[in-house]
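lol forgot to send this yesterday, sorry. struct tokens for the thing we talked abt
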């Protein structure tokens, strides 16, 4: 894989004069309220003002005929026989006083492609429509999948879905974006983090009493990141959560489910099914966009902190496992925000995007992309401008909201990807969005790839397109971050959450044997 620097695109497009005028007028009106003057109660920097909106659109299939669910096994083994919980496209839109706009979208599906072989249903097509309708550049819209393993298979490798359903997802996603932008109102943005130790595990998760995985060989990312909009009246209007555990609370079901990200979202929105209306929880009237981070072989590990048996459903109820885990994630985010959140003082919003050329060195995946075998066919476009037979052209995107960098990963990033970027890009905290703008399998550093071959006897080799994918993505995102005004340090020798060029084979091999 090579970074195609000739295709680097840094968005500088601003909204129309009319929209900028309306934005300025609204901000002036907001600053005229008493709440606006309470910008720094602790004597710190003045809080910046943005315009923030959020919206959601239902993407639950109207008909389950021909709908397969993705994430377990291979081929059409997981047909959808019902709907456990509705699934959504949720959008979080932010504009700065100068009119620069970014949008972050979460789709409750296993994965979604940048472009499709069978029609104009991809993220690239959504970008084109939004550029025409809203004058927002493609680089400023980040669309990711929550990766629920009981979500519709929009990839084709687990049986797929009808083309009409892909068209429906596209239309509803565009509706969510349009409504989020239309809903933008003056707001301050605050962020916080939470230590999620014990929530997720990795290789060897059952090999010790903590159930948190082999932290010596493969540390997981234990940080939850949350960004929240607060109106001039002090009301929470939108929450963006970024956390790093596979949505695999369930094993394979025969019903559509958003897994724990959906439960986290509905809890934060005060819209959870089965909770008494008398119970106080979440932020009524708000929209929560729950995104996954560096989830490469990181999955839920038992009953986490933050559960409340008096409120949460029984584990034996239909959605109990996902509700219990998802509600706990929501409570951790709420607790972090209720503690000592940091308000953004930098008012800038921006985006930078570069194109990665990912050479597919995996013969099995290459065959599935070429051979049109129903139920086993990868629907990702593989001809120009989106690919070239054995290569995919995919965006590496970085956003800036205040002094926070937000990085896309066009697949499932291992924790080392986030750790490298967090070390090399100077910022208070770095968000990472897995499966953003594309789904090209695992995104690993070379040392991750070597270690996975020893530590896992499951699907690492099969769903890895290129062993250098992760290293090339980090280089591209370093460049994007620099163009957005962040200080980027020399990588040097850092503790990058990977097992090194040659992994500690003794532990990995013992764990692998134990999994056979």
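and heres what i got for the seq, position by position
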């Amino acid at each position: 894989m090579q970074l195609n620097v000739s295709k680097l695109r840094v968005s500088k497009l601003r909204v129309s004069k009319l929209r900028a005028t309306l934005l300025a007028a609204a901000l002036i009106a907001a600053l005229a309220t008493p709440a606006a003057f309470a910008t720094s109660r602790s004597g710190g920097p003045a809080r910046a003002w943005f315009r923030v909106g959020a919206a959601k659109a239902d993407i639950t299939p109207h008909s389950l005929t021909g709908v397969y669910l993705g994430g377990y096994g291979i081929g059409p083994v997981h047909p959808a026989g019902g709907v456990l919980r509705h699934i959504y496209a949720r959008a979080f839109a932010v504009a700065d006083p100068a009119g620069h706009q970014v949008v972050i979208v979460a789709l409750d599906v296993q994965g979604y492609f940048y472009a499709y072989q069978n029609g104009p249903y991809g993220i690239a097509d959504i970008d084109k429509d939004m550029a025409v309708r809203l004058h927002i550049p493609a680089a400023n819209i980040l669309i990711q999948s929550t990766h629920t393993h009981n979500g519709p298979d929009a990839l084709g490798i687990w049986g797929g879905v009808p083309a009409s359903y892909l068209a429906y997802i596209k239309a509803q996603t565009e509706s969510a974006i349009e409504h989020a932008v239309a809903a933008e109102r003056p707001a301050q943005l605050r962020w916080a983090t939470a230590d999620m130790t014990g929530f997720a595990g990795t290789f060897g998760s059952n090999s010790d009493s903590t159930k948190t995985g082999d932290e010596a060989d493969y540390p997981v990312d234990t940080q939850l990141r949350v960004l929240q909009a607060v109106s001039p009246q002090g009301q929470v209007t939108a929450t963006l959560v970024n956390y790093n555990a596979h949505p695999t609370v369930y094993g394979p079901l025969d019903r559509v489910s958003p897994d724990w990200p959906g439960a986290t979202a509905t809890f934060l929105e005060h819209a959870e099914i089965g909770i008494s209306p008398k119970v106080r929880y979440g932020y009524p009237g708000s929209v929560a966009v729950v995104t996954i981070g560096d989830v490469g072989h990181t999955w839920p590990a038992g009953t986490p902190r933050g559960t409340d048996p008096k409120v949460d459903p029984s584990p034996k109820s239909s959605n109990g496992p996902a509700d219990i885990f998802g509600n706990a994630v929501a409570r951790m985010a709420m607790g972090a925000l209720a503690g000592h959140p940091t308000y953004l003082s930098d008012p800038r919003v921006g985006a930078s995007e570069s194109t990665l050329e990912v050479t597919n060195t995996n013969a099995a995946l290459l065959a599935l992309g070429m051979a049109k075998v129903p139920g086993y066919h990868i629907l990702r476009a593989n001809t120009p401008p989106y690919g070239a037979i054995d290569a995919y052209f995919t965006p590496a995107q970085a956003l800036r909201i205040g002094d926070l960098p937000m990085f896309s990963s066009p697949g499932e990033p291992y924790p080392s990807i986030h750790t490298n970027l967090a070390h090399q890009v100077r910022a208070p905290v770095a968000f990472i969005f897995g499966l953003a703008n594309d789904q090209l399998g695992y995104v690993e550093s070379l040392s991750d790839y070597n270690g996975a071959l020893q530590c896992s006897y499951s699907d690492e080799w099969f769903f890895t397109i290129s062993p250098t994918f992760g290293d090339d993505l980090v280089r591209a995102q370093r460049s994007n971050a620099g163009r957005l005004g962040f200080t980027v340090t020399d990588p040097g020798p850092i503790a990058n959450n990977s097992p090194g060029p040659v992994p500690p084979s003794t532990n990995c091999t013992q764990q692998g044997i134990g999994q056979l």
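Residues 118 and 186 are 41 Å apart (CA to CA). anyway ping me if u want another try
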